[in-house]
Amino acid sequence: MNIFRLSGDMTHLISIIILLLKINATRSCRGVSRKTQELYLLIFICRYLDLFTNFISLYNTVMKTVFLSSTFAIIYLMRSHKVIKQTYDKEQDTFRTQFLIAPCAVLALFLHSEFSVFEVLWTFSIYLEAVAILPQLVLLQRTQNIDNLTGNYIFLLGASYGLWISGIVQTVVYIDFFYYYIKSWKNNEKLALPA
Question: What is d(CA 91, CA 53) in angstroms, rounded to the nearest whole number?
């Protein structure tokens, strides 16, 4: 296995664990974009459709299952938990995700390696993953509500794409956030994004 891929997977997994711990420990999802989480669930569903039809390895199967179930758990907590759902900021999480989904779908229909349902959906998931963090970044910029755990989640998520060699586009999307994250960490200040 590629060391960069393994490091990227583990960093991504740690970012999700941090987000789940933040939501459970604080009983709050304030500062977390449900739209970004729903985009990630769509990405994982499209990418991992082969979970039950194509066994690659135990590692691959476990990671796919963990990413799907943990993302579903985050969305479940944000939508259904009686206390946590009260903290979701629906008025600020207004990014219109159809402007991300539609172009990625069209792109996947025309730019893919093989015209089959699995391949087009997998390609769609790759394109969508490159921009799925945008609702989260816009939410943080609007609310300026960036606690340490949410900042760590986003930093580690972005770092995981940097570790995956194919994650160049995703990493570029995170560059601005990385700058402010490192600056606030270095100066021991609360993370703040420009308005």
Answer: 41
HSE of 55, CA atoms in CB hemisphere, 13 A: 2
The two three-digit tokens of residue 60, written as one number: 């691959």
| SS3 call for 48 | coil
Radius of gyration in angstroms for the set of CA atoms belonging to the chain, rounded to a whole number:
17
CA 65 to chain centre: 16
CA pair distance 52, 95, nearest whole angstrom: 33
Q: Which residue has the tokens 């021991």?
A: 188
Q: Write the CA distances from 149 to 4, 23, 44, 145, integer angstroms.
A: 24, 9, 23, 11
Tokens of 114: 């093989």
pLDDT digits (tens, 9 = 90+) for 15-40: 999 999 999 999 999 999 999 999 99
User: Cα–Cα distance between 173 and 167 in angstroms, integer?
Assistant: 10
Res 152: pLDDT: 81
